[in-house]
Design brief:
heterodimer, A: 115 residues, mainly alpha, 2 domains, 5 helices, 0% strand, disordered C terminus, B: 286 residues, alpha+beta, Immunoglobulin-like, four-stranded mixed beta sheet, 8 helices, 33% helix
């Protein structure tokens, strides 16, 4: 086997080791995430918190703004998807469904901007 | 030496490959983390997360759940983190609701009853700003609400109907009493939350004293609360929501006269509607 082929094989081996090290052993550590990067469980809990908070504050615009931080989808979709995919307790489902119902009826005015 | 020279091409290839691998995995195509815990959120998002936890707690009153949620932020001390945020929020003139809910959560985490610290009472008869009824028809749970009018009124209370203060019993001074009760007023104003026990603490130079521990006792129960948790109302200010028809005794933990026989005074507005007034106490160092 020629030296060049041996060097190439060694490079490939080094590349594999480097990728394994960089992706698995010591991957890039992120900080300063936005809520849209939250793990699904935390996302669902975040959505529940928005619904719980809404019970007290009765501010749909604020709730929509808070939901917009975790997804660009419409607020109703975010809540509906969370209801469909997460295993909430019945009282939490009631709270979320209430917000979903009111969010469906909500029409933000043109002057209001929901990111 | 000769052996090393023989394998130099392998070593160089290995190092080159390893370097390339790191460049790809760290710079060109780093892992995209989409399953982040709340502890990795940016500081301002963490603040928003805490405010949301506090707001959710204000709605549900579920302290255990609030604590579990706060724990996911991995703050070394969740109470300190909340207090720091409260200070930042008051400095930045954030929404007063957020400040109020954060304060209430701090108080609850310190082991005091949150329901007692919430300003507006849920009883429709007594409430100045009745809450919307829930769909199930059950009474609304005590919620934290904050009206700027109330805050303003608390800063400069203007009694609508004044009445003669109820006789109260003052205990004798203990050997070390750094604070004395300077004034005691009963306030009847619809602009102030009902049944509020408002305490102002200042030192000998009339400067507000934050962090002063206040002990209130009634029916064999005892609660502690602190000045300075509502900085928008003054660093030496603290309040406690009294229940109707109950008698309270209050003193400062640092030592003061014990003021007993405190209770929400009955008041009447211009339309003849009854409501509960508030009591204002001013403690000073002589």
């Amino acid at each position: 086997m020629s030296r060049w082929i041996q060097a190439l094989l060694a490079t490939l081996l080094g590349l594999a080791i480097g990728l394994f090290y960089g992706w698995r052993i010591a991957p890039v550590e992120y900080t300063d995430f936005a809520p849209n990067a939250l793990h699904e469980d935390y996302r669902n809990d975040y959505i529940l918190m928005v619904a719980e908070s809404y019970q007290n504050e009765k501010d749909l615009e604020k709730a929509a703004h808070q939901l917009a931080l975790i997804s660009s989808a419409p607020p109703t979709e975010i809540i509906a998807e969370s209801l469909a995919t997460s295993d909430y307790a019945q009282k939490d489902i009631d709270i979320l469904e209430k917000l979903l119902l009111e969010m469906r009826a909500w029409q933000p005015s043109l002057s209001e901007s929901v990111p | 030496m000769k052996k090393i020279l023989t394998f130099w091409h392998l070593l160089a290839g290995l190092l080159l490959g390893f370097g390339l691998g790191l460049a790809i995995s760290w710079i060109i195509a780093p892992l995209e983390l989409t399953d982040a815990p709340p502890s990795l959120l940016r500081t301002d998002f963490k603040d928003g997360y805490r405010a949301l936890i506090a707001s959710a707690y204000a709605s549900t009153g579920d302290l255990e759940r609030a604590e579990e949620r706060l724990a996911t932020l991995n703050d070394p001390d969740i109470i300190t983190a909340l207090e720091n945020q409260t200070n930042r929020t008051s400095t930045n003139e954030d929404s007063p609701e957020s400040l109020e809910t954060l304060n209430a959560l701090v108080i609850a985490l310190k082991g005091e009853s949150p329901a007692k610290q919430i300003t507006n009472t849920p009883t429709p008869f007594y409430t100045q700003t009745p809450q919307l009824p829930t769909k199930t028809g059950t009474p609304a749970t005590p919620t934290i609400t904050f009206t700027p009018e109330a805050a303003t009124a608390t800063l400069t209370p203007i009694p609508i109907n004044t009445r003669t203060p109820r006789a109260t019993t003052e205990a004798s001074l203990t050997p070390s009493t750094p604070y004395i009760l300077a004034t005691q007023d009963e306030l009847c104003s619809t602009n102030i939350s009902e049944g509020l026990l408002m305490v102002y603490v200042s030192d000998a130079s009339k400067k507000a004293v934050p962090g002063a521990e206040i002990i209130v006792e009634w029916d064999g129960k005892e609660e502690h609360f602190f000045t300075g948790l509502k900085p928008e109302l003054g660093n030496g200010y603290a309040d406690f929501a009294m229940e109707a028809n109950k008698s309270y005794a209050l003193r400062l933990a640092a030592g003061s006269v014990a003021v007993s026989g405190l209770g929400a005074p009955p008041c009447q507005d211009d339309d003849g509607n009854h409501y509960w007034g508030s009591i204002r106490l001013r403690f000073e160092q002589p």
